[in-house]
Specification:
- The protein is elongated and about 60 Å long.
- The protein has 3 helices and no strands.
- The chain is mainly α.
- The protein starts with a helix and ends with a helix.
Length: 83
């Protein structure tokens, strides 16, 4: 019976991690959209918030074998808007 409880606990932790990962992913996408918007308008933008969220996501990803996310640079943003 304890094996079943351990498995149930692992599943619960995995689901919680998935929810947190997806929430962070949405926050990251919102932060990226904001940086792109500022870049398109020729205004100053930072990637610090994007990368803070990315770091949190990658911590979860490494523990639960979720896909890792890349750190975003200003150059990446500028290249994206120049396409």
């Amino acid at each position: 019976m304890t094996v079943h409880l351990q498995i149930a606990e692992q599943v619960k932790k995995h689901r919680q991690a998935q929810k947190e990962f997806l929430k962070l992913d949405a926050e990251r996408e919102h932060a990226i959209a904001g940086a792109l918007s500022l870049a398109r308008a020729g205004q100053h933008f930072e990637t610090n918030e994007i990368n803070r969220i990315t770091k949190e996501m990658n911590t979860i990803a490494s523990a639960f074998q979720f896909p890792m996310r890349k750190q975003v640079t200003k150059q990446m943003v500028n290249e994206y808007i120049s396409r």
